[in-house]
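Lab notebook: predicted structure, single chain.

Context: the supervisor wants predicted structures on file for every construct in the current expression panel, including those that have not yet been purified. This is the next one on the list. No modifications to the sequence; it matches the entry in the shared construct table.
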Amino acid sequence: MKQYTAAEYGKVAVMFGGASAEREVSLRSGQTVLDALLRQGVDAYKFDPAEANIVELLHNQTDRVIIMLHGRGGEDGVMQGALQQLGIPFTGTGVLGSALAMDKIRSKQIWQSLGLPTAKYRIAEKSGFEAGSCSAIMHELGNEVMVKPAREGSSIGMARVTSAKQLETAVQDAFNYDNQVLLEQYISGPELTVSVLQGRALPSIRMSTPHTFYDYSAKYQDNTTEYFCPSGLSDEEEAALADLSTRAFAAVAGYGWGRVDVMQDATGQFYLLEANTVPGMTEKSLVPKAASAAGITLEALAMAILATSMTDMRDGQ
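Prediction complete. Output recorded below exactly as produced.
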C-alpha cells in the first residue's frame, strides 16, 4: 500500500456526523478514525457538516478531508461534489461512483449489463405502486423477497417477507425512506462481505445472526452476531470472490476503499448485493475486522484510507 508521512497530509478534517439516517453510526466511525489518525501524528480535527457550513473548511485552512459520513449527503456524491467545487481533496470514491453505489437499483443494472451475478428483482415506484401486484411479484421472485429502499444504508428500512400481505406492508414502510424500492429475490445461504483497500481485496468475512437477516440491530446494537474470518471458503472460492468483488467495485466507479456485500447459495454461486463506498469504521464494523485478519492495524488502515486523498493516487478519478 502506498504510504505518506503524517506531515505530508497537512491539516486534515475528519468529516462525520451529518444529517442522514445513519448519523449515529457515522459519529462512531468518525471518532474511531479521528483517534487513530491522532495517534499517528496527523494534524486532524473533527468536522460535522450538520453543525458547520462546509465553507469553514477553507477558513480553517484544511488541506484535505477524510469522509466518514454514511448515507445521504455524504456517501451519495453530494459532499464529494461540494468538496470538489471547493478544491479540497477528499478520500475514497468520487461523485459518479458515490452516486451509483448508493443506488442499489442502478448498481444492479450496471452489474447485470456486465454479466456479473446478482439476484432477480423488481422495482417499486411510490408514484405507481399497486398493492394488487404483490402476489405476482412474490411468485416471480420465489415467494421470499428482500425489500430495500434504493438509497439507504445500514439496512435501514429493509425487510424480509414471505407473503403478499407482508410485501405490501414492507413496501409502504420502505417508501418512508425512498420513492424507489428494490424488491429482490432472497438468496438462502451465507452472507459474506469483502473489503477493498487501494485495489486489493482483503480476506472475506462471513456473518451469522439469529435475526431474520443481517439488519441494523445485528450490525450495531446486539452481541448475538458472529463474524468468521477466515470465512470458511476454499482457496478457490476465496480467490473467485475477491475477483468478483474488485470487479463489481470498479464497475460502479468505486475508488480507494470500500466494501462489497454478497450472498452465496447452496450451489456455491455468489450473488452481488451492494457496494459501499464509505463503510462503517466502528468497533463492530467489517472493514477493520478484515484489515486485522490481513495484518493491518486500525492505525495503518486509517492512514491507508487517508492516502486515497492524495492527488497522485487520484489520477483519472
